[in-house]
Every structure is written in C-alpha cells, then in structure tokens.
Design brief:
Blueprint: H1 6-11, H2 32-41, H3 44-49, H4 51-65, E1 69-71, H5 78-82, E2 87-90, E3 94-97, H6 103-107, H7 116-132, E4 138-144, H8 146-155, H9 163-171, H10 173-197, E5 201-206, H11 214-235, E6 241-245, H12 255-259, E7 263-265, H13 272-278, E8 284-289, H14 293-296, H15 298-311, E9 317-321, H16 331-342
Parallel strand pairs: 1-4, 4-5, 5-6, 6-7, 7-8, 8-9
Antiparallel strand pairs: 2-3
Helix pairs in contact: 2-4, 4-7, 7-10, 8-9, 8-10, 9-10, 10-11, 15-16
The chain binds coproporphyrinogen III (CP3).
Length: 343
C-alpha cells in the first residue's frame, strides 16, 4: 500500500522534497490555549487523565500551526504510576515519585500486565484523536525508555547526572536490572495498547541516555530499547518506531541498526553535517534545531532552520527541535518557522 502521510513516508525511508515537521512538547505552556485548558483541568495530571481535555490540547498546535504529526498528550511518568509508584507534580519544580532503593520497594510494584486499568483514559485519548485528527496528520504515541523512567523511579525526582540511579546500578545490580526489565515489559504493553487504540508511530524518550557510558550504554540504552522494539514489531508488523537517546553523542552512530529503530531523534549537541554522514546513512533522522531559537526567533532562527533542512536534504528527515519547546517560546516564531520550512 502506498503511504500518503508525509511522516510515514519519511519513516519508511523516503527522501522528500521538503521535510515533514512537528515539535517536541508542541502542546505546552508557550500556547495561551494550552494554559487555558490546563487551568480548566485544575492540574497537569488531571489534564493527562481527562481524555477530552488531553485530546483538546493535543489538537491545539495542529489547528494553529498545521504540523504533520500530533503527539499524544501524556507524560512518561504515568507508566510508573500505573505500576504502583506514587506520582505528583510540585508546582514550578517538576515531578515527584515514591523512591526505589532496594528489592523491598520492587516487591510493592505491580506486574507489567496490570497497568491497563490505570492507563485506560490514555487509550481513550488516543481513540478520540484518531477520530478528530485531519487525514494527513500522523498520530504518535510514546513512552519513556527504561533507563530514563528508572532514573525517576529510583530517585523520586529529576537528579543531576542521575546519580541515585547510577548508584543502584553499581551497588545492587540485580534490583536495578529487574526494574529495567519490568519497565521494558510494561512499556511493550503500554505502547501496544496505544497502537491498538490508533497510534500510528511510537516514540521512546531516553532523555538521560547521555549519562550512560561505555558498556552501560550498551546494556541499558541499547539492549532494553532493542527488546521493546523487537517485541512491538512482532505484535504490530511494520509499526514505525522513533528512538530518542538524548545526548548519546558518538553513540548515535549505529543506534538505529543496533535497536531496530526506524528513525533516530537527534538532540542539538550533535552537528547536522556529522549526523547526515554518520546517522542518516542508516535511515530517517529527526531533529535537531536548538529550542532556544524558538524564544529568540528572527533571522538567526530562519538561517538555522534552512541550514538544518539543507544538511539533511539528501536522505529521509523529519524536522524537529533537539529537545522540547520551552514555555518562554514565542508562538509567532513557530508560525514563521513553518513558513520557512514549507517555503
Ligand atoms: O511532546 C509533547 O507535546 C507530548 C507530551 C509530553 C509531555 N511530557 C507533557 C508535559 C511528552 C512527550 C513528555 C515526555 C517527558 N516527560 C519526558 C521526556 C522528554 C523530555 O522532555 O526530556 C520527561 C523527562 C518527562 C517528565 C516530566 N514531565 C518533567 C521532568 C516535567 C517537568 C518539567 C516541565 O517542563 O515542567 C514534566 C511536566 C510536563 N510534561 C509538562 C508537559 C506539557 C509541563 C506540565 C505543565 O503544564 O505544567
């Protein structure tokens, strides 16, 4: 069957005359309409678990900017919550979870198959989006990769250099490995349910992959992601998968081959020319403009967008930022970015 959606064509390896585009965190606080819906929901988790409102904020940036993909509005930390962790968000600070310091905390978690009742509202959001999205817009589901999710579950919050997670990995390898395996199994379950509800592509966010070095990178950034992708593709033949091993640096090279990902998302610490030569040779890449440019805009933003499009023009490319768009970004700059990319 011939693919018509531009994102799916790029993910299948096609070099398009101009790249399709979406932005990480495209539904978020930089948009006044997001802030209004979030206020209506009361708090961030209520917004995630109220399907009509979560679908509404997913659609807002599609209506305003006409992106080629919508990403399900949810959070990578909903899965730990479904596994039995406590989760709350401290205003202005970020997420807080109950912690994991040893095997006794592991025993309190649920099994990978037991997450679906808790996550049913998320699947309902996907079903609504499937109905409501324009025919040309691709729907992306997502989850966190095991290392990044484990780093929050262990420390109970974001931590500099993920020190508590490294400590558990180095001092209680069995507990750490069991946690990674549980998250990987639950992630297959979660993403598979998103696909059955209507997600056409899934993305794995490994925001803290960059703090894994040497053999640790192979064991905990590559191996669990490879297993998740293999199991998802066995259940859903042909499902395209985007992997985002943020700040992987030299490890970006070969990442798609090692994991089976159809597309590697690049952060803005790697040069586009290097990535075109070393990463795009294996297939589609996504990225990688500095999110700060969406705050400052102007000719610097326009020139950099054109440079990135040019650098990746000889292979399959999805235009995106190197990380999420920030709350201080100017929506007018996004409008201008779309004009530059679409010509
Ligand atoms: O990209 C999208 O638009 C889809 C929605 C999405 C959110 N979080 C919504 C969100 C996605 C894909 C995520 C992923 C996520 N969540 C990651 C991985 C990607 C990355 O950015 O590195 C991580 C590490 C988290 C955990 C998380 N969620 C943190 C650390 C925070 C607090 C920081 C912040 O920006 O406030 C969140 C909250 C969060 N997740 C918000 C949004 C829109 C802000 C919540 C609000 O409205 O106050």
């Amino acid at each position: 069957m011939r693919l018509t959606k531009t994102i799916l064509r790029a993910l299948a390896g096609e070099t398009l005359p101009r790249p399709p585009v979406w932005l990480m965190r495209q539904a978020g606080r930089y948009l006044p309409e997001y802030r209004a819906t979030r206020a209506q929901a009361g708090d961030f988790l209520k917004l995630c678990y109220t399907p009509d409102l979560a679908a509404e904020v997913t659609l807002q940036p599609i209506r305003r900017f006409g992106f080629d993909a919508a990403i399900l509005f949810a959070d990578i930390l909903l899965l730990p919550q479904a596994l039995g962790a406590d989760l709350w968000f401290e205003t202005g600070e970020g997420p807080r979870l109950s912690t994991i310091s040893g095997v006794q905390d592991m025993r309190r978690l649920k099994g990978a198959q037991d997450i679906h009742d808790h996550l049913a509202p998320i699947y309902e959001t996907v079903r609504i989006l499937k109905r409501e999205l324009p025919a040309e817009t691709t729907l992306i589901g997502f989850a966190g990769a095991p290392w990044t999710v484990a780093s929050y579950m262990i420390a109970g919050r974001g931590t500099p250099a993920q020190a508590p997670a490294h400590k558990l990995k180095d001092e209680d390898r069995a507990t750490f490995a069991a946690l990674i395996d549980l998250i990987a199994d639950a992630t297959v379950e979660y993403l598979s349910a998103q696909v059955m509800a209507g997600a056409e592509v899934v993305k794995l966010f490994d925001s803290w992959a960059g703090s894994l070095k040497g053999q640790d990178f192979a064991d905990f950034a590559l191996a669990p992601v490879a297993r998740i992708i293999a199991e998802l593709k066995a259940r859903h033949p042909g499902l395209p998968v985007i992997a985002f091993p943020r700040e992987a640096g030299a490890h970006y090279k070969g990442f798609a081959r090692a994991t089976g990902a159809d597309c590697v998302a690049l952060d803005n610490s790697v040069s586009a020319d290097w990535a075109a030569a070393e990463v795009q040779v294996d297939g589609c890449v996504q990225g990688n403009m500095d999110p700060k440019l969406m705050v400052t805009g102007g000719t610097a933003m326009e020139a950099e967008a054109r440079r990135i499009v040019q650098a990746f023009a000889r292979g399959p490319h999805i235009f995106n930022l190197g990380h999420g768009i920030t709350p201080d970004a100017d929506p007018e700059n996004v409008t201008r970015l779309m004009e530059v990319i679409r010509g």
